[in-house]
Amino acid sequence: MVKYFCNNTDIKSAWDHVVAAFWQRYPNPFSTHVLTEDVVYREVTADNRLFSRRLLMKTNRLPRWAERFFPGGMSRSVYIIEDSIVDPVNRSLTTYTWNLNHTTLMSVEERCVFKDSVEQPATTQLKREAWISSSIYGFSKPIQEFGLARFKSNQVKAMKGLEYALSNLQGETPQRLLRDTVKDASEKAKEAAKTLASAAAVPQKPQQYV
């Protein structure tokens, strides 16, 4: 069973500006959990599309219940691969991201498509999809619920970070950081963590093999 997330957003900026901001969105005050970013490969394809692969290192504070699934000394950092394709002819930017480690506990795959809006001038349409899964026996469902809640929280922060980068590119200093929206999403993630903690406290019946 995999948890699926889909969201459509209109960004009130021209596609060219959004693409430029995409490459300059780190660091920003909303994504302090992103520690490093490195371009590991880049090429212009035969059909004049720009393909890039980046390696990002992120960290998220683990809830107490998750400690039981991590052996002592194991890194809490998460390594993320981000593939992106910029198509200047069709005016689209497509990104694919997935985590390289801790995949048994949780695997998160994301696809984002930024397209120039045909109907609305100076607007970019963003479609964001995510697939969240876990292979922990007896806890996969609550872990996926927690992962979905955390993903929703982080994607709100990601949008705020992109808006922050856009403001900087346009020479505007944001008057205030809209942390209220981020706080609301973070509270939902905490609620899911409490649910999972309760599930973890219930003894699981061992699996029997015939």
TrEMBL record:
Tell me the superkingdom of the source. Answer: Eukaryota
Instruction: Show the Pfam families listed in the entry.
Output: PRELI (PF04707)
User: Which stretches make up the PRELI/MSF1 domain?
Assistant: 2-174
Q: Which terms in the GO cellular component ontology are assigned?
A: mitochondrial intermembrane space
InterPro entries named in the record: PRELI/MSF1_dom, Slowmo/Ups
The record, for PANTHER family, names: MSF1/PX19 RELATED
Q: What is this protein called?
A: PRELI domain containing 1
The organism's lineage is:
Eukaryota, Metazoa, Chordata, Craniata, Vertebrata
